[in-house]
C-alpha cells in the first residue's frame, strides 16, 4: 500500500523552481566551467546551446530534468546566456521545437554524468 507523505503543494514544488535562484545559487549551480562550455559550444544554434546549458545546470540544481526546459526562470536563462555570449536569452523559446532535441540532450548529459552532483536539497 502506497503512503502519500507529501501534500499536493509539496509534491508540486518537489524538484521544481520555486522562484528565481539567489545570486549565490546562480554562481554555485549555474556557472559553466571549461568542460561545460566545451559540451555546450558543440551545439550549433544559440537556442540549442542555451537549452543544453539550461538542462545541464538545472539538473544540478533540481536533481532531475525539467519537463520543459523553456520554463526556467528568466534569471537563469539570462545568467547562462551571458556566459555563452548569447545576446538574446529569449531565443530559449525555440529550444525543443524539433521533436526529440531536449530528450536527446538530456540523454547526452545523463550518459556523460556531466557534473551532476547532489541537488540543492540538503546542502548547505
TrEMBL record:
Regions of compositional bias (Basic and acidic residues) in chain numbering: 98-108
Domain of life: Bacteria
Pfam families: DUF4158
DUF4158 domain span: 5-111
Region called Disordered, residue ranges: 98-124
InterPro entries for the chain: DUF4158
UniProt protein name: DUF4158 domain-containing protein
Organism per entry: Streptomyces haneummycinicus
Amino acid at each position: 500500500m502506497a503512503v502519500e507523505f507529501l501534500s499536493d503543494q509539496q509534491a508540486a514544488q518537489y524538484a521544481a523552481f520555486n522562484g528565481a535562484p539567489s545570486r549565490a545559487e546562480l554562481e554555485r549551480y549555474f556557472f559553466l566551467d571549461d568542460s561545460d562550455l566545451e559540451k555546450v559550444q558543440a551545439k550549433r544554434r544559440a537556442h540549442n546551446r542555451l537549452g543544453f546549458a539550461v538542462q545541464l545546470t538545472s539538473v544540478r540544481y533540481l536533481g532531475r530534468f525539467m519537463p520543459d526546459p523553456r520554463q526556467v526562470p528568466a534569471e537563469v536563462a539570462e545568467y547562462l546566456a551571458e556566459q555563452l555570449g548569447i545576446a538574446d536569452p529569449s531565443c530559449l523559446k525555440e529550444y525543443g521545437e524539433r521533436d526529440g532535441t531536449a530528450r536527446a540532450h538530456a540523454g547526452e548529459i545523463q550518459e556523460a554524468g556531466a557534473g551532476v552532483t547532489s541537488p540543492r536539497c540538503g546542502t548547505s
